[in-house]
Known about the structure:
It contains 3 helices and 12 strands, in the order αββββββββββββαα. It is of the alpha+beta class. It folds into 2 domains: 134 residues, Beta Barrel (Lipocalin), CATH 2.40.128.20; 62 residues, no CATH class. The chain has a 10-stranded antiparallel beta barrel. A hairpin with an 8-residue loop joins strand 7 and strand 8. Helix 2 crosses helix 3. The longest helix is centred in the first third of the chain and has 36 residues. The chain is globular. The chain starts with a helix and ends with a helix. About 3% of the residues have low confidence. Keywords: Signal. GO terms for molecular function: oxidoreductase activity. This is YHS domain protein.
Amino acid sequence: MNPYQRTLLAIFSIGLGFSICAAVEQNASSQTASKKALESLNEMIGEWRGTGQLRRGSNSGAWRQSGQFEWDFSSESPAIRYIVNDGKLTTSASITWSRTEKFSLQLLQPDGTKRTYRGDWDEGKLVVISKPDDDGIRYRITLTPLNEKRLLVLHEKTSPSGSSFFRIAEVGNTRAGTRLAIPGGGMRECVVTGGTAQTAVTHNGETYYVCCTGCKQAFEDDPEGIIADFKSRLSERLKTSD
């Protein structure tokens, strides 16, 4: 290799290095933004007991189900998973966020049907809507956290040519177990996401708390980094309160 070729190779290597560093920084920034946006669902994290009703106030066709919302850090971008037992409308769902699409909900139904919904928060409700299917029907899911103990999940759809949505069914969920105190009230806070927590984890003799199995795994994978971020959040909170 002559000197000219070595110079070109060096220039190419430097440029490639800058490109890789920029891509890594952009990806880290995107992950941080996604996690921050998904933290708006922290109130939903945990186990729930639900009653589904085709018509409000009627037990005709009603069913009981249970489910759990939990963080998932196993992929490149964080997500919140929803696993349902004995549900008539949902087997599982995954909620992600991006700057371009906002919230995206990937739904798996008991019959194996998969459907993608997209949307955003609207007056305290997370509203996501699917694109028209082959029959021209759109579907909508509205998640309404009334408080830390109650969560409503409304399923709706349109007629093939209609713009209005009609009720399919609504699941009224009550949080399973004992009521937990809210974060910031001197009680337990998830070291990973800041949500309400009850599961203890330890590192170097210190005890912290997490809200779900996904956060427990994230803590175990990088306890030093998680604790550092947690202490940084606490420091910023104290500055804001001064």
